[in-house]
Amino acid sequence: MLLNKRGNIAITILVFLVATLVFSSVFIFFTTSGKASAKIYDAKFLDSVYVKQNLAEFYLRHAGENMKNSGYSKESFKKKFEEYDFDEDYLKELKKIISEDKFNLKKEDKILEIVVNEWKIKDLHKNIVTYIPKISVKFRKV
């Protein structure tokens, strides 16, 4: 039985790695399980959120495509986006985020990307539900 000493070491290392994997999985499960606790049962809320998000992406894309004559900079994008006059509160909040410079404008070769991470959509559905969409609009520069 003592002739194969390498086998005992390999099994010991395997058991140690499996135990480490199990403990880290359990730790991650318990530390992140409380972050997504809201259940949304109404499909109408999700549909309205997606409509609002698509409308915001439309205005962001339109403003981005219209700034080709004034250069592709954050300031020119902010000026183009401030030209819009919105009636809806969620679009006014998006306009405020853009005016406060809380967005990223990435330029790579001929592709321009506008990223907004801090926009929140709030709705009353039995209780207040807040949805934070990650908006990323890409288009080609002309």
User: Taking all residues together, what is the mean pLDDT?
Assistant: 81
Shape label:
flat
Specify the biggest β-sheet. 3 strands, antiparallel
Cα distance, first to last residue?
75 Å
Structural class of the secondary elements? alpha+beta
Which percent bin holds the helix content?
A: 40-55%
What are the low-pLDDT stretches, counting only 5+ consecutive residues below 50?
A: none
| Rg calculated over all Cα atoms | 25 Å
Task: Kindly give the count of domains.
Answer: 2
Tell me the strand percentage band: 15-25%
Query: How are strands sequenced across the largest beta sheet?
Result: 1-2-5
Number of strand segments: 5
Order of helices and strands: HHHHEEEEE
Number of helical elements: 4
Question: Describe it for me?
Answer:
This protein is of the alpha+beta class. The protein is 51% helix and 19% strand. Strands 1-2-5 form a 3-stranded antiparallel β-sheet, with helices on one face. A two-stranded antiparallel sheet has the order 3-4. It is flat, with a radius of gyration of 25 Å. The mean pLDDT is 81.
Summarize the structure.
The chain has two domains: 1-32; 43-140. The strands form two sheets. Strands 1-2-5 form a three-stranded antiparallel β-sheet, with helices on one face. A two-stranded antiparallel ribbon has the order 3-4. It has four helices and five strands, in the order ααααβββββ.
Ordered list of secondary-structure elements with their pairings:
Elements lengths: L4 H28 L10 H24 L7 H9 L6 H11 L4 E5 L2 E6 L4 E5 L1 E5 L3 E6 L2
Antiparallel strand pairs: 1-2, 2-5, 3-4
